[in-house]
Specification:
327 residues, 5-stranded parallel sheet, 43% helix, Rossmann fold, alpha/beta, binds thiamine diphosphate, globular, binds magnesium ion
């Protein structure tokens, strides 16, 4: 049986042709397949973690199913490595897709989920999704929401001083932007003449636990708040991996070129509700980016039925094996 290799390399050839090329934003076939594979892997991993919770083998689940189309490109595009010359990640608890795209094996998320002392992120001391990977400059995810935003200004400031054209990237949810830490980040990122090389992102699923976006925000989009600080800002469809990939690539280029911050708000789904505290049940009717992207690739002939079946089987087996190993 042929083994597939996720995140191994981004294809430079075999560009998708003609009409299909427009449909896929000019991304190569290899890259489309790689993005799809990582999205599938991340979804299967999260669903495995939910099963572990349901089996009573963990206390709490929170994670990122519904954010794969956004989170995978966010893990593929930056300059990955350790130290000030590489990009820094200040993530929140729904960033499994980004970690999978960076190369995190399933066993690491599983050990964290099952609070094993072998968990390399926290020694088994924190919730699922609270990753910390110094080898890829992934700073510890914090349980108090939003503190990652001003912390990201700190690494961005150090990177500016080091002049290596490295970037800090910070992620969080929509409701969390109500915290003062978010406003502090906008202030510190945008001071004239002292601008920071920072990609500020917000994943807007239009919920903060059970509080709706409409009930909490006066502004049409959170991106408008960044614009008030004259930070370049846009809203993207975070359910579309191609739109997300192209937008992140453009903004990383802009930040590396200018040394200035940029802001992306990504519209995403929250496919299993807030967390296990709200049941972790699948939200029927919400946009499922993994299934939709898969169908689009199948229809265009970029992907075959047999590859789809094989991928789901292969990663399901890896998830089961990871749970066994952690147990
Ligand atoms: C400072 C702080 N206040 C409250 C909480 C409790 N809390 C955890 S998640 C959450 C909602 C966050 O919503 P949002 O920022 O939209 O992120 P989402 O979970 O929707 O991705 C809240 C209020 C917390 N963890 N930290
Ligand atoms: Mg939210």
């Amino acid at each position: 049986m042929k083994k597939t290799t996720p995140a191994a390399k981004v294809g430079q050839n075999q560009g998708v042709q003609g009409k299909t090329k427009n449909l896929f934003g000019g991304l190569s076939k290899d890259l489309l397949l790689q993005i799809h594979e990582l999205m599938v892997k991340s979804r299967i991993l999260e669903e495995r973690l939910i099963k572990i919770y349901r089996a009573g083998e963990s206390f709490f689940w929170i994670g990122g199913p519904g954010e794969e189309a956004w989170g995978v490109p966010l893990g593929l595009l930056p300059r990955k490595g350790r130290g000030i010359e590489y990009d820094f990640f200040h993530l929140h608890y729904r960033c499994t897709p980004t970690m999978v795209a960076l190369g995190m094996p399933m066993i690491e998320a599983t050990r964290l989920m099952m609070n094993r002392s072998t968990d390399i992120s926290t020694g088994g001391r924190n919730f699922s999704g609270h990753y910390c990977f110094p080898q890829w400059n992934v700073a510890p995810v914090t349980s108090p929401i939003e503190v990652q935003y001003p912390i990201a200004c700190g690494t961005a400031h150090a990177q500016k001083r080091a002049k290596a054209k490295a970037i800090s990237i910070v992620s969080g949810g929509d409701a969390g932007t109500a915290e003062g830490d978010f406003a502090s980040c906008l202030v510190w990122a945008s001071r004239r003449g002292q601008e920071l090389p920072l990609l500020i992102t917000v994943q807007n699923n239009r919920w903060g636990i059970s509080t709706s976006y409409q009930g909490q925000h006066g502004e049409e989009s959170i991106a408008n708040r960044a614009k008030a600080f004259e930070i370049r800002a846009r809203v993207v469809d975070g359910n579309d991996p191609i739109e997300s990939y192209i937008a992140i690539r453009e903004e990383l280029d802009y930040i590396r070129r200018t040394g200035k911050p940029s802001f992306i708000e990504a519209s995403v789904s929250r496919l299993y509700g807030h967390s296990s505290a709200s049941g972790a049940n699948f939200e029927k009717g919400d946009f499922d980016c993994v299934r939709e992207f898969e169908m689009k690739l199948l229809k265009a002939g970029v992907l075959t039925d047999s590859r789809v079946k094989e991928l789901w089987r292969q990663y399901e087996a890896e998830g089961v094996a990871a749970a066994d190993q952690a147990r």
